[in-house]
Design brief:
This protein is α+β, with helices and mostly antiparallel strands and 498 residues long. Helices cover 28% and strands 22% of the residues.
């Protein structure tokens, strides 16, 4: 390793020690300004897969029956407890009493039933109806809600903790994209497109003692240098997403700032359209994987901050399996596979990078250079985020792109041939069904890992690395999440030391 890498590592260790200092007791009042990278496409996390939405609203504005805590544990939220029948087919949740929505109306059992009837309706516009497919019937009695399942579902509780499962007033379900109304510790006050989102303390929040802040602002700053300059100048208080590694290191030399390095569920993924041109050929996809030096990308683009991966899961997840050596960096092997596929003279391909995401763009530029060295001529372009969502993600109109997939436990996307990878393998669906009906965590784990092996061998995508979760803040800001078990900049326990 070079001298700079060791210097960077030394700074990281020093920074980690600095952050570990004891925090002062929580204090009430004040405001925190947090940066995000792009305008979310609406505010209902069940209507879009964009992770920009839950970063703002998950457990800040919206809550579900259960939720993830800062360590990834599933804990009570609107449900204070639950029981499961011996056969796993009935899940009964006891709902807290006295919970109010931000519009002043009480949370009712009917709101909860309506939410999940909508969630499992394939015509409702809900993005992940498959999460709720095992549910045969939803009923309520007194202060309980019961999910009766057609078959046991080992993922049900996990899916109920996801942002997709947040609950809002049944009578206002169609307005949540623009006027979110939840039960969380903050109420949604104002959204200025391209500028900021403002939240304020919800005085009728059902948990005593939180939140500590009077208000919070999420400021939309797409450019990473502008974002970091705003932190250094004190114009924002916290960067909780897309902090670059060199900026993370600079925090160490600024007495007004602090930072943390934690785990995340993100996979930086070179996505390939498995139905288009040369990429429909497995040999070509294998060649592309062999042509990419992932270690060089982590060391060069990330200053060593990241873990090389070989399939769709991050080391932070319980079913992670290290498949990084399935197709190791081998340019000669890449050229041989291209020749075997009929592309001995190479080919030209379009590679589109998403505009607001610096790490992805930086990695993509290195990848383009590496592919050129084996004869693949890459035509690079940068696309605006809204265009990326509509044309690439939703429309599947692309050759190659790169993005960080941050939603946890989402390997089920490989069972959907209409997903933007356009990968069609019915075996994946069969394995997912086996995982769902598994009576033990070990069986479920084995099925997930078998899926991971299949998609790695099929070279569906190139899973480059999993980045750490990097945060930088003003010295007087405490209580933020240092790990990212689900995409959320959770401000419930954030406070400012006076």
């Amino acid at each position: 390793m070079n001298r700079f890498f060791w210097l960077a590592l030394t700074l990281i260790l020093a920074l980690g020690n600095a952050v570990a200092q004891d925090a002062p007791a929580p204090q009430y009042g004040g405001e925190v300004v947090v940066s995000i990278t792009a305008d979310p496409p609406g505010w209902d996390p069940s209507a879009s897969t964009s992770q920009e939405i839950p970063r703002v609203v998950y457990h800040n504005v919206f809550e579900g029956l259960v939720r993830f805590d800062r360590d990834g544990n599933i804990v009570p939220a609107l449900a204070e407890s639950w029981t499961v029948s011996d056969d796993g087919l009935e899940w009964t949740f006891t709902i807290r009493e006295g919970v109010m929505f931000h519009d002043g109306t009480p949370l009712t059992i009917d709101d909860i039933i309506a939410k999940f009837e909508r969630a499992r309706d394939p015509d409702s516009g809900h993005t992940h109806t498959a999460y709720y497919a095992p549910i045969a019937e939803i009923s309520g009695s007194g202060n309980t809600v019961t999910f009766s399942l057609a078959q046991a579902s080992s993922s049900l509780l996990y899916n109920l903790a996801r942002p997709d499962s947040v609950i809002y007033p049944a009578a206002k379900a169609d307005t949540q994209r623009s006027q979110p109304i939840g039960t969380g510790p903050f109420r949604f006050v104002e959204y200025i497109e391209g500028s900021e989102v403002r939240l304020e303390r919800f005085e009728d929040y059902y948990l005593d003692g939180v939140p500590y802040l009077d208000s919070a602002v999420f400021r939309i700053i797409g450019d990473p240098n502008t974002r970091f300059a705003a932190l250094q100048a004190g114009d924002i208080d916290l960067i909780g997403v897309a902090l670059s590694p060199e900026q993370f290191l600079q925090v160490q030399s600024d007495p007004n700032l602090k930072g943390s390095e934690g785990t995340a569920t993100t996979e930086i993924t070179l996505a390939m359209n498995n139905s288009r041109g040369p990429l429909a050929n497995k040999l070509v996809r294998q060649a592309i994987t062999h042509a990419i030096d992932k270690e060089a990308i982590v060391n060069g683009a990330m200053f060593g901050l990241g873990t090389v991966i070989g399939t769709h899961m991050s080391p932070a997840e319980s079913y992670y399996i290290d498949l990084s050596n399935t197709y190791p960096y081998d340019p000669e092997r890449a050229r041989a596979l291209l020749a075997e596929a009929g592309y001995s003279d190479g080919f030209t391909i379009n590679f589109e990078l998403p505009e607001p995401y610096n790490i992805e763009r930086r990695s993509g530029q290195v990848i383009a250079q590496q592919l050129s060295e084996v004869g693949i001529d890459v035509e690079l372009s940068v696309v605006e985020w809204g265009t990326w969502i509509q044309r690439i993600f939703l429309g599947g109109d692309y050759d190659m792109t790169i993005i960080g997939h941050s939603e946890p436990r989402d390997i089920n996307i490989y069972a959907n041939p209409n997903y933007y990878y356009k990968y069609d393998n019915p075996v994946i669906g069969e394995l997912l069904n086996q995982a769902e009906s598994a009576q033990s965590a070990q069986v479920q784990l084995a099925n997930y890992q078998q899926i991971a092996k299949i998609i790695a061998e099929d070279a569906v995508n190139v899973w480059v690395f999993s980045p750490p979760y990097l945060v930088a803040s003003q010295n007087d800001v405490y209580g933020f999440w240092t790990n990212q078990p689900t995409p959320s900049i959770n401000l419930t326990e954030v406070y400012r030391a006076q």
